[in-house]
Amino acid sequence: MTSRNQQLFEKSQQLIPGGVNSPVRAFRSVGGTPIFFKKGLGSKLWDADGKEYIDYINSWGPMILGHAHPEVVAAVQQAAANSLSFGAPTGLELEMAELINQLVPSMEQVRLVSSGTEATMSAIRVARGFTKRNKIIKFEGCYHGHADALLVKAGSGLLTFGEPSSAGVPPEVAAHTLTLNYNNSQMLKDTFASMGEEIACVILEPVVGNMNLIVPHREFLTTLRELCSQHGTVLIFDEVMTGFRVALGGAQALYGIRPDMTTLGKVIGGGLPVGAFGGRKDIMSVLAPLGPVYQAGTLSGNPVAVTAGLTTLKLIQAPGFYEALTAKTAQLMDGMKQAAHKAGVTFSAQSVGGMFGLYFSASNPTSYADMMQADKNAFNHFFHSMLNSGIYLGPSAFEAGFVSSAHTDADVAQTIQAAEQAFASL
Ligand SMILES: *Cc1c(COP(=O)(O)O)cnc(C)c1O
User: Fold this and answer.
1) Is 55 a catalytic residue?
2) 160 pLDDT tier (thresholds 50, 70, 90)
3) Active site residue 238
4) Is the pLDDT of residue 385 over 70?
5) What is the mean pLDDT of the segment spanning 398-418?
6) Whose CA is nearest to atom 15 of ligand 1?
7) Number of folded domains that form the chain
8) Is 206 in the pocket of ligand 1 (CB under 6 A)?
9) What does the CA dihedral 360, 365, 369, 372 come to, rounded to 10 degrees?
10) Residue span of the structural domain in which 130 resides
11) 315-331 confidence digits (pLDDT tens)
């Protein structure tokens, strides 16, 4: 008998490219049939066949309070009853801007958008408009959404500009993007020495969550800050994933670095589509209607989405929220490492706040090249064993994992027990 999941996937493939609306969902990296969900509550999910899972994707981060949090759902219902959209200003947007500014003080001014992709794309346009420069720097393995200028990989030489990493991106667009190695300060210094006055901005994930989890060297971040200040280059922290996830004030609070601009997404919408970009007032002032840089959105600041985000941001300010989330995530990692050790499997793990990385390698990777050394086959085997046991991890060896405040000690214990079995089967 074919499962409802399989039926849904087969039919979806007829009408939706690859059967999914975002590629990683298709399970191409791990193989097998993607899970179609119909319900989530707290730390749990139920698929189309009624099977229960403990969720460690949490919609790739946004569901930091767990699924269907009663206060968030009630606030959204109330907001919806007052109209789904105005396309005109509301007091809610002001409330959101005030709260962002209070929690992330480097964001002196902020504009709301509807996705992380829009936030980074717009931040880069602003940085270029402000500096009147075209070139940008990003780092290998960081993901900043799917705007053309960011779907770029390194060119053939160390300091040559990039090539498109996706078909459909004109080489002329990619040619302005330079891709350097994460955590490599020397490469950064060399680049600024040779072309610092041409670089509009540097964009990075201050803790990387899109090539599994990679932690920054402090000295890499301070070098970056110094070089950008020296050369009039706009430093953009892409905190779409790390914002309100690694700490209440994001990675910039955790590491004590003040970027010129910040992009937010994921947690800021609490599960509905909200993104934001903001930063220094002098930089943000180049935006229309004040200045010459155009940016707009019909549904930007949507009242229902902003309400979901605001309610989420209010709840995560509860005393001890991040201490508990951080401790629970660390406890899960310790259990995983012990389970692997018992089974004699080469494995490493770490976490920052409510974000974690599992690696089938002897130590925690610090760059994209490092990460590529991990045993992908072991991960894929482990992933399917965990899925069988009702533990839903990201379906790729190169994704980070997420814990919510709804995850209980019992969830953690059940996950570690499943991991013991999974490691033993490798
Ligand atoms: C998810 C993500 C994005 C893209 O956000 P979308 O809402 O998927 O467009 C950008 N940057 C980072 C760091 C992300 O993790």
Assistant:
1) no
2) confident
3) yes
4) yes
5) 98
6) 241
7) 2
8) no
9) 10
10) 70-315
11) 999 999 999 999 999 99
Residues 57 and 79 in one domain: no
**For helices 376-388 and 409-424, angle between their N-to-C axes, nearest 10 degrees:** 130
Look at residue 294 and tell me whether its pLDDT is greater than 70. yes
At residue 156, the pLDDT reads 72
Q: Which of 315, 339, 359 is the last residue of a domain?
A: 315
120 CA from centroid of ligand 1 (Å): 8
d(CA 6, CA 10): 6
Residue 143 annotated to the active site: yes
With 70 as the cut, is the pLDDT of residue 38 above it? yes
- Residue with CA nearest ligand 1 atom 8: 116
Ligand 1 atom nearest to 22, measured from its CA: 8
The finding on whether 273 has its CB within 6 A of some atom of ligand 1 is no
Examine the pLDDT at 1 and tell me if it is beyond 90: no
- For a mutational test of ligand 1's pocket, the pick from 64, 143, 262, i.e. the residue with the most ligand atoms closer than 8 A to its C-beta, is 143
On whether both 259 and 378 belong to a single domain, the answer is no
**Ligand 1 centroid to 201 CA: how many Å?**
18
Q: What backbone torsions phi and psi does residue 140 show, to the nearest 5 degrees?
A: -60, 130
Is the minimum distance from the CB of 238 to ligand 1 under 6 angstroms? yes
Give the mean pLDDT of 92-99: 98
326 in the same domain as 232: no
Q: Which residues, including other chains, have CB under 8 Å from residue 23's CB and lie 6 or more apart?
A: none
pLDDT greater than 90 at residue 190: yes
How far is residue 248's CA from residue 358's CA, in Å, rounded to a whole number? 23
Cβ 200 under 6 angstroms from ligand 1: no
**What residues have CB less than 8 Å from 414, skipping those under 6 apart?**
54, 390, 391
Which atom of ligand 1 is least distant from the CA of 238? 13
